[in-house]
Amino acid sequence: MHFRFRFSLCLALSLALSSLHAADPKPAVKASANGPKWKKLTPQTPAGFTLKTIEVEKHPEHTVELYVYVPDAEGTWPCVLDIHGGGWKARQVEADKPMMERLAQRGFVTALVSYRLSTEAKYPAALHDCKAALRCLRAHAKELKIDPERIGCMGGSAGGHLSGLTAMTTGLPEFEGEGPFKEQSSKVKACIVMAATMDVVEANRGKKNEGATLFFGGSEQEKPEVYLAASPIHHVRAGVPPTIFIEGEKDSLKIGRAEMMEKLKALGIETAVYTLKDAPHPFWMSDPWCAETVDLAAAFFKKQLGEPVGK
């Protein structure tokens, strides 16, 4: 991430909530004769928020935790859970924190989950951890100032795959796992998928993908039923939540995304795709694309989850 991307000035995003955007920290990008420059971001808990760490479940290989940005003000807030990327094998919670800090400032409790990686436990462990994290958020809803009826999820790359899979398997008990807080629901009301394949069968057919093989415990040829079950597109049905996609113009084609959108549209479920100009694969980790991503996410989640309720 030490190289720079140069790009032309981007148009304002149509979904941005301009009145709220003014409250965001200014992107750390300096204009030049050739346009803005890419800028890596570092976490910094914003004023008016407390970052809390909640233990979800302790495993021998890893303790699953939630990192939650809770408003200091009184009230009840919609919540968004972030599922980080990293090829299912790298823990990238810190890289996603700046995005979730900014999103919190738009009127949300935001949380990040440190799920078990492929080097620690095979699929479906990561999915089960995401479901357990959602149940944990509801179990701690009063402490975290969350409205348990208004929770969404988002993620990028491998986290985008898990975000889409978490959303599309909403209400299917066979995907819950044996984690804690079983009295709570893992339902999400809205989902954002960033830069992620939705059909891991087609993406890995006839291939030996090291990352996928490590995560799923074998190749697609060896474990076709596992790859099918792990493909978000396979679970699209009536009742799954509105789901939008954000992608980078400079990234590779995300297999299954277009076909999944057609399935959602056929069911009357809201969906859309937004392509960020000149953006590379991990666009949400750097400005100006983090700012653009937050604009889109804030508008979408405000529409689907609603505004905070003050006291």
Structural overview:
The chain is built from ten helices and eleven strands. With about 300 residues, it is α/β, with parallel strands linked by helices. It has a single domain (about 45-305), classed as 3-Layer(aba) Sandwich (Rossmann fold), CATH 3.40.50. Strands 2, 3, 4, 5, 6, 7, 8, 9 and 11 form a nine-stranded mixed beta sheet that branches. Strand 8, helix 9 (about 255-265) and strand 9 form a beta-alpha-beta unit. It is globular and about 55 Å long. Mean pLDDT is about 90; it is low at about 1-35.
Counted up, domains total 1
Briefly note the structural class of the backbone.
Answer: alpha/beta
Report the strand count: 11
Write the element-wise H/E pattern from the N-terminal end onward: HEEEEHEHHEHEHHHEHEEHE
Can you tell me the CATH topology?
Rossmann fold
Helix content: 25-40%
Overall radius of gyration: 18 Å
CATH architecture tag: 3-Layer(aba) Sandwich
Report strand %.
Answer: 15-25%
> Major beta sheet, specifics?
9 strands, mixed
